Amino acid sequence: MPTKYETLLEKIYEINDLNKALSVLSWDREVNMPPAGITGRVQQMTTLSRFTHELATTDELGELIEAAAAEIDGADYDSDEASLIRLVRRTYADARKLPPDFVARVSDVSGHAHHAWVAARANNDFAAYESWLAQIIELSQEMSDYYGYEDEKYDALLDKYETDMLTSEVRAIFDAVKAELVPLRQAIDEFGSPVDDSILHQSYEISKQQTFARYIANAIGYDFSRGHLGTVVHPFAISFSRDDCRITTRWNPDFLSPALFGTLHESGHAMYEQGTHSDLARTPLARGTSLGVHESQSRMMENVVGRSRGFWQTHFPMLKATFPENLNGATHKDFYRAINKVQPGFIRVEADELTYNFHIILRFELEQAMLNGELAAADVPAAWNDKMQALLGIVPPTDTLGCLQDVHWTRPMLGYFPTYALGNLYAAQFYETAVTQNPAIIDEMAQGRTDSLVAWLVENIHQHGKKYTPRELVQRVTGQPLDHAAFIRYATTKFSDIYGL
Amino acid sequence: MPTKYETLLEKIYEINDLNKALSVLSWDREVNMPPAGITGRVQQMTTLSRFTHELATTDELGELIEAAAAEIDGADYDSDEASLIRLVRRTYADARKLPPDFVARVSDVSGHAHHAWVAARANNDFAAYESWLAQIIELSQEMSDYYGYEDEKYDALLDKYETDMLTSEVRAIFDAVKAELVPLRQAIDEFGSPVDDSILHQSYEISKQQTFARYIANAIGYDFSRGHLGTVVHPFAISFSRDDCRITTRWNPDFLSPALFGTLHESGHAMYEQGTHSDLARTPLARGTSLGVHESQSRMMENVVGRSRGFWQTHFPMLKATFPENLNGATHKDFYRAINKVQPGFIRVEADELTYNFHIILRFELEQAMLNGELAAADVPAAWNDKMQALLGIVPPTDTLGCLQDVHWTRPMLGYFPTYALGNLYAAQFYETAVTQNPAIIDEMAQGRTDSLVAWLVENIHQHGKKYTPRELVQRVTGQPLDHAAFIRYATTKFSDIYGL
Q1: Which of A362, B30, B239, B314 matches a 20 to 30 Å C-alpha distance to B5?
Q2: Confidence band for A140, pLDDT divided at 50, 70 and 90
Q3: Phi, psi (5° rounding) for residue B425?
Q4: Which residues numbered 235-264 in B keep a CB inside 8 Å of some CB on A?
Q5: Which residues pair with A245 in a beta bridge?
């Protein structure tokens, strides 16, 4: 006779299996599906998502969770059992708040919106996407009402990506970041020695980019025996189990950075889930705890590792051997400076570490306005351009380079964007702690190696998966709550050096 | 208020969606999944397959089918509605015969067996696969008992691939084929002018093979805008909707035929489902009617088209331009003779049109013995080799080249193999009818074009999907039951010419 907890575990496994099946369909849609296949794929995902949602919201499951919780009452807070109960209680309560019809509508609208967006972006045709964005905003408003909130509508959605975080907290942190970064950026503008990044903007053969991307992903510790690299329009990482964590990249024939730093970024995400403890397998604990912490792992690999001097001192010779016609006249120092050039640009995913945060603040502010009914879909392009002017001093010449650039608004995913900038802050705070606890990391990093860093990340962050909330995790790992100071120290040191301030 | 038929249709759509989702997981497993991902994937597919099976076997569905059938009573036999009722009645009755636990066990064992087979085949280690094969045989025996049969255990399984076909009928047809083909093969051996196929066994760069494979698949009418070409160990075609019908190929660096004829073969399968009528979309009618008829479409493209003189007269210049270093000294006539060389070999999928049928008869006879308990898993390698000696006069030096070569016995799919040889017979019979009804096909074929042939196939076969049983279809299309005479005429004419008999 199985215990209540064991019975619950079987149910949790089943729900997890179906959610991962949905992920496979979603991955395939981006990587392999011919465009004509979208109608069938939307139907398949809508049906599967409805069944999965039904299974995850039955009265019986709620009763089983409580019975299992009573059975393990007194279990250590850190135990897998207590952690799973905490998580499934929260997930169950959230899932019950969304009616099945609403979930099916989200899946259906999102599927079609996504493909409309791909075409609108390719054709710089916001008008063709406007009605879809309007539906996404409406779905987001409905969703925040279903979830409920105390202070602000936006809280309800933010909580789904960064558990327990409040909009007011994010606003305060972002304001502090702005206050510190604006003077640094101004100092770079006024006093910095100019950085030439033309080396990155040359014709780079795509098949060679692919070979080198595999090389550096492997070098930082992404495990290809439990992974796969695919090609997409808008890169992402996704996992179907800890032994099948995939990355995707896009290849720009005239610009090297998207392939290099996109691959490092997605590898960081995938390594987080490859590093979850095997005891958590087939449960929702085997994931990153929040999008912000997830992003800290991708930013760690993309920026702290991948845009460091030591990394390119070690790996530039291989890059040069791959592209001799492009790089024969350059040194690793030229390359290091080029990839760290600070310059306001239109595209978030290509932004430098400093101005990146302004891209996020722009979206964070627009999203709140959309959600509160203060900004209609039709007015988004103009509002976008106004904010770009105010925050970055530039205006995109097309919507493709503006409000159509990101995939996120093809789903009711408002509340997601701020986690990107939070990721930068978590990353710097984690890294400061890591090198304090194990100074060998600094020596290895100077030689382009990540062994000790990755071991520290697995030990302190990865293995725990979703056992702790981000608030709990950052306190547990660093002994302090999330703070922007480490990032400011990191950025000031690095860019003062590069720009000779 | 929806009608009963409309309500049934919604249920059928849902079940179809979940079955197609399973197909995506299965495709991904073969094409992209890292080997380490197998544990999670088996769990996902087992869970999804159990839910789908449950949904397809409820009492309510049975009642709904009968209520909908009563509602449309009197509908034309050829109507989509009457055809769907006939099909889902049959499928429902079959599905109810298999207990859910058994279905889950099949999925679980097959998932693991498949990966054990990949390793065993790579290492020529039958012993490592033996216990899995034993389980597959047991599952097949159980399955035939669940389905039930009148005359022979094998009938129960054969019916699932070739509806209404009896083992005794297949045996009679295969005996007749043997009686006719053995003298032809002997005549080739004794009196034929030797054919040199060394041109095919050279080093062919894989990336160029891939480019050329895409070229010929497109040339015969495979629609890449509704398709995708992937790389696998054992090629197959699969469809997720009529607008997403995929093919897969393997690439041999030292032998050109697998890529060329494998691609044409799988394209023929995929074109069948791309050609189903859009009114049948999202229902189980949007598939080939049986494996034998499906195989007739792949063999039509692989052999009748792809191994014809006219095809290579037209396309050999492009092949030569792709591989000048390999083919500069050769003419299209040399190539045509090389790809039609008759020679007993170990590998079924590389066999010529004549000896191919012996490979099938071997498997057909072994399968009956396994199913009837007359042949244990451990004795399969020896029995295989004995039959090879008797039928083809050769003995494979390894099990990798023998009983481990095919993927089929990683599932309880006994009864599947005979449909391959039936496909050759259907193909020849369909082609004779096609050229009688539209002689322009002959002229086009002489110029390497398939427009009229494909139009005829869509009109007479593809668009109907699974509306008619194979018995009904062949009678309707050719005015006669399945017969081996057309294939014998086709093969005798072609090979007498090539071998100067």
Answers
A1: B239
A2: very high
A3: -70, -45
A4: 240-241, 243-244, 246
A5: A227, A239
- Residue type for A309, please? R
Domain A167-498: top CATH class: mainly alpha
How far from A113 is each of A27, A129, B144, CA to CA, in Å? 16, 8, 47
Out of 1.10.1370.30, 3.30.470.30, 2.60.120.260, 2.60.40.10, select the CATH number for domain B167-499. Answer: 1.10.1370.30
Order the strands of the B227-231 sheet from edge to edge. B227-231, B244-249, B237-241
Q: Is the dihedral of CA A187, A189, A192, A196 positive or negative?
A: positive
User: For residue range B197-244, what is the model confidence (pLDDT) as tens digits?
Assistant: 999 999 999 999 999 999 999 999 999 999 999 999 889 999 999 999
- CA nearest neighbour of B51 among B103, B119, B9: B103
Nearest CA distance, B80 vs chain A (angstrom)? 20
Annotated domain spans of chain A:
4-141, 167-498
CA–CA separation, A294 and A287 (whole Å): 9
Give the helix/strand (H/E) hosting B176: helix B167-191
CB contact under 8 A, B28 and A33: no
Strand partners, B359: none
Judge whether A1 is closer than 8 Å to chain B, CB to CB: no
Three-state SS string over B318-335 comes to HHHHHCHHHHCCCCHHHH
Q: Are residues A14 and B47, on separate chains, in Cβ contact within 8 Å?
A: yes
Interface mutation vs chain A, best among B16, B26, B211, B241, most A CBs within 10 Å: B241
What is the per-residue pLDDT for A352? 92
Give the H/E segment covering residue A239: strand A237-241
C-alpha–C-alpha distance, residues B426 and A75, integer Å: 67
d(CA A14, CA A56): 10
| pLDDT tens digit sequence for B416-445 | 999 999 999 999 999 999 999 999 999 999
Chain A residues 39-68 with CB within 8 Å of chain B: 39-41, 43-48, 51
Q: Does B10 touch chain A (CB under 8 A)?
A: no
Q: Which of B266, B273, B353, B367 is catalytic?
A: B266
